[in-house]
Amino acid sequence: MEVKLNLPARAWAALDAALAFFRSAPGDILSARPLMRHCRFLHHLLNKSGLRSSYVRVGSVAPGRDLLRLRVHGEHSPHQPLEINLPSSVARGLAEACLTIIEVQTDAELGQLLDHEAEELLAAKLFLSELRRTCVRRLIPQRRGRGLIVWDERRREYLFTAQAAWRVQQHFLRAGASPN
pTM higher than 0.70 for the full model? Predict the structure, then answer.
């Protein structure tokens, strides 16, 4: 079964950047890890559709720490909707990766969140929201412990909990950008 997901090109690019950690695994490990294969599969689909992105330096936050912004280029404008068809197993794997990204990057004990990662967190949350709206809830794995995102039935989207939302907002303010 395939799942059709429709997100802005910039959100797909930010999600692809967020999943780069999973894609960077060596080839011999890749064959044993479906999650890594799913991230590479999405990367391949985005490249095939003509979507390219890269981070560019736009300033400095502190000595030795650059301020980066995602630049989307290729055949799609950043705000243009882009529909991607994913097999349900790949969509579930990507949902698991998105939950991991949100849990790790918003954990204060694991270090400071980088400014450019705030957009990646928003893309992960947007992907999960679109996945839940588009198909059945069972494609999103359930996690134990404290949740950093919660489903808002009225808005029909995932929202960051107060702790995670505050951290993301602070990083956008420091970067001089808007989360919208």
Answer: yes
